[in-house]
Write a structure and sequence with these properties.
The chain is an alpha/beta fold. It has a single domain, classed as Rossmann fold (3-Layer(aba) Sandwich), CATH 3.40.50.150. About 40% of the residues lie in helices and about 20% in strands. The chain has a seven-stranded mixed β-sheet, with helices on both faces. Bound molecules: S-adenosylmethionine (SAM). S-adenosylmethionine binds next to helix 1 and helix 3.
Length: about 270
Amino acid sequence: MSKMKVGSHKRSKEDLVDFIKKLELQALETAEERLPLYLEVELKDAELILDVGCGPGMVTRDIARLTKGKVIAIDGSEDMIKVAKDILKVYKNVELRVGDAENLSFNDNMFDVVTCNLLLMWAENPQQVVKEMARVTKSGGNVLASLEPDYGGKLHWPENPKIDPIFAGKAIKARGGDPHIGRKLRLLFVRAGLKTKVGIGNNRIWNCKEDKAYYLHARDFYVKTLKDAGLSQKEIDKWEYNYLKSLDEGVQLNFFPQFYAIGKKP
Ligand SMILES: C[S@@+](CC[C@H](N)C(=O)[O-])C[C@H]1O[C@@H](n2cnc3c(N)ncnc32)[C@H](O)[C@@H]1O
């Protein structure tokens, strides 16, 4: 594994724990958006599935539950694979490996379905990742990229002109991600030679109770993000007070589109 340049590697151990907590809740909260996509790519009857950039494995667990087939899941981060091994230990149909999404160590035309969730935003070279995913997919098989956000479409109210831009892209860029990956999915899939369909997976706006539960679960992650962006503790406290107040009053609105792409290999 010579050139692992993956998102998780830019994080300290402490950051990683906060990031994993965020991914855990995200997997739970987005299950209803991903399930129809898994049905569409015929996951249930697939024999061999590859989940690329599996992270701590909560999304891989959904995939393993929904198929009769075998799931191989890879991630570039050894730490992530360690966590995933623990989370998935009772799933006998899952095999976990450290591996590079830009250079998949599998033969051409091996898998019925190849999936990734929230990977392309963090990949150094997303085009190379999709090309590789297409290469290892069988002819007639499907490649699925789910939950790839586009923070250019982020809506948040009441607004905070200093903080909003941090969560609408700046923080992701600082960690090496592409906050506008959503709009690029079609191009990435078409250029990989796939017969492509794109859509927005999240067509529901969360209520304030859901937004608050999500925030509190991943609070350390958000606070650290603001600290890294140069805010003082006083500024963060003030922001948090107003943020929680508007959630408790039930008046806050948060939305950003999360795109998906399904590509059939000719
Ligand atoms: C945001 S996490 C998503 C994890 C998981 N798919 C989920 O939805 O919970 C992105 C993951 O992609 C992995 N990753 C990024 N670039 C990669 C690459 N080139 N090869 C393998 N894994 C990569 C990171 O290590 C990280 O675990």
